[in-house]
Write the structure tokens for this entry.
Amino acid sequence: MVPDVSLNSSLIRYNSPMYRVLIPVVFCILLVLLITSQFKIRHINCTFEQTTCTQEQLRKLEGLQRRTILGSVKISLTPYIVHIEKQYPQTIWVKIENPSVLYSVRVAPNGEYRQIGDAGLVVEAPPQLKIEVIDQRFAPLHPGDRVSSPVISMYRSLSNISPGLRDMILRIEVKDDTEITIFSRDGRKAVVDTQDFGKELESLQSILSNSTIENRFTVIDLRFANPVLKQ
């Protein structure tokens, strides 16, 4: 006798493996569409240096209007630092800041001043001169460019230089990472590198401050384990 399965045919069909997978997928798709439409970014509140953003800065943020607030929202406005705070369901707050200046550098050979930010970005800011530095490692250097880690380390050490040593130094000329010449105000010069720049600065201050070292030694090479004094 042939069994009658007509009454259970629909149940058997919807309990098949294909439908058990398909139904959750369709449900998830509908849920995502619903959420993304609800959390579409429609309002951008933007401040720059504690003032309302200009129309030009807001135009750079127009791409956010086509995005949803779900997930990470990232903005790149080189050379600025951008902070984003979400406010559900349809608003984000954008705060744009100039990065702090680590050091001002005169770029050879054109002699233009460029400001290097603490994160290694070249930023637009007034020169903040501590010691005159002429750096020949750079090709044309523009706001938004990023300098290498040895350069950042060197200028961070210079920014933390002691007032006593700062008063002794006339200027610094950088040829490359292995040859940095520091000219003192008393006519002597020291040759250092970026490998251990901070410690070399400490050694230089000790030597320049030591009255027992005769001034007839006009060149101090600090690139070795022991300083080399030359006439």
